Amino acid sequence: MDEHAKLWITRAMRTDPIEPDKITPAIEGLYRVAGLKKPRVVIVPSPLVMAFAYGASAAIWYRRKSPEQGNIEEARRTDDTSDDATEGRADFAIRNATIYATQAATDDATDRATDDATRFATEYVADNATDRATRLATEDAIEDAIEDAIDRATHHATEDAADRAGCGAIYLAIGNATDSVFDRATYRTFQSATDNHELDAAAACRNIAGEFGIQCACEYWCGGYQGGNMWADEDSYLTACRDILGLDLKEHAAYAFWEQAAIHGGFRAVHEEFCLVSDFPELILKDEQNRPHCATGPSHRWRDGWTLYHWHGTRIPSEWIENPSSLTPSIALGQSNLEVRRAACEMLGWSRILSSLNAATIDSDPDPQIGDLVEVELPDLPTKAKFLRVRCGTGREFAIGVPPHITKALDAQAWMVGLEPSEFVKPEARA
Questions:
Q1: H/E element, 189
Q2: Are 250 and 312 in a shared domain?
Q3: 13-27, 58-72, 256-270, 313-327: which has the minimum mean pLDDT?
Q4: Quick one: 370 and 300 in the same domain?
Q5: Do 148 and 245 belong together in one domain?
Q6: 266-275, pLDDT tens digit by residue?
Q7: CB of 219 closer than 8 Å to CB of 91
Q8: Domain boundary residue among 272, 302, 318?
Q9: Is the pLDDT of residue 193 over 80?
Q10: Into how many domains does the chain fold?
């Protein structure tokens, strides 16, 4: 079981380039067993390209088939003020039926056919182990980044430089997914803007398919997607039942295509006319808790240049890593997102943050390795926060947060090692 889980962990963390001759027949087989016609299989260099190209391509196909409908709001014919309507309305342009059909015929069918006893015997080692080792650094991190990019695009906000990476690839992907032929003037304008870094991924989608294309991209993420190799935890469980326990199901014949798509492809967006499949990243870095992290560069990088930056699981602006001097205490403390603020403060070091805030000393020990207990007002906290500022044996200074009931520096040291103050003995200094 352990070796089986490691196999799927390796597949989830794959950084080798995608192989078109392996992923294409897997996707075509997936559509075939779902009773769908053969799709155009389009390989794209990153999930960001996939998301925006999907929205534009879905919009183009919908307008071809329903020219009388000018936009998605007219197609819905529903009251957008109703939360129930928003959640329950049909996604006309996106055809989520394709998502459900392919999954129901393969992954879901195999899952349902596997009985509870088999799940109990394999789930903890195969499914859970793979999930813990991969999900934070793969699907969760990437999905969050794409959702954020699409949210900014929906509100016409300016994209950052990383989102410009996919412009040319978006153009090609839309052309392959729709057989669209753009006139020379449109192409020249598009290419010029791309070459001059004036056009980001969202603008590329909007330029080709209008606001409707952005809406379709947004609806795609609301409606669901298929994670490919980044859903490795479920495939680890299903294949463990078959390969280790010897469970032989008729559903495995159809599931084989889903399995091959998970081995040989990343995120995919399925549509009744086409399927966009993302290449694997060329770099994935994580910390000891399997959270995406890198202190010196991007945590994720795709071959088209799209990058993500994380600090122990929290996505941060690229300039904080690439240009550390750009991050100051005032910028760190001004972050509205508490997790981003925490990450920024950790990057700067709490000692520097406390110095910038003129922290008040409550108690001081003559030994700098025992340290000073200080308190300070931090944004959004109802009471003052307490920190123990200490110097380690290497001479570096640290500041460690402690509970509000602590009143002595020595008591803070006891708390850090899990002892009551009466149980803590100050370490003896030895020559």
A1: helix 184-195
A2: no
A3: 58-72
A4: no
A5: yes
A6: 999 999 999 9
A7: yes
A8: 318
A9: no
A10: 3
- Cα(240)–Cα(110) distance, integer angstroms: 12
End-to-end CA distance of the chain: 51
Compute how many other C-beta atoms are within 10 angstroms of the C-beta atom of residue 243: 12
Residue 277's φ and ψ, nearest 5 degrees, are: -120, 125
Q: Supply 430's token pair.
A: 């030895």
Give the up-direction half-sphere exposure of residue 370: CA atoms within 13 A in the CB hemisphere. 16
Percent of the chain with pLDDT over 90: 41
How do residues 136-191 score in pLDDT, each as one tens digit? Answer: 999 999 999 998 888 887 775 544 544 555 677 888 888 889 887 654 445 555 55
Range of the domain at 289: 284-318
pLDDT at 279 over 80: yes
Regarding whether 126 and 174 lie in a shared domain, the answer is yes
Q: What DSSP letter does each residue of 365-385 carry, written as one string?
A: -SSTTT-EEEEE--TT-SS-E
In 265-372, alpha helices (H): 319-322, 329-333, 338-348, 350-356
Please tell me whether residues 219 and 361 are part of one structural domain: no
Query: Does residue 219 sit in the same domain as residue 176?
Result: yes
Can you tell me the distance from the alpha carbon of 431 to that of 429, in angstroms, rounded to the nearest whole number?
Answer: 7
221 and 93 share a domain? yes
Please report how many Cα atoms fall inside a 13 Å half-sphere around the Cα of residue 174, on the Cβ side.
Answer: 31
188 three-state secondary structure = helix
Give a yes or no: residue 246 inside a domain: yes
Q: 335: which DSSP letter?
A: -
The overall pTM is greater than 0.85: no
* Judgement on whether residues 25 and 113 belong to the same structural domain of the protein: yes
Distance of alpha carbon 169 from alpha carbon 173, whole angstroms: 6
- Identify the pLDDT of residue 29: 97
Distance, in Å, from the CA atom of 68 to the CA atom of 259, rounded to the nearest integer, reads: 40
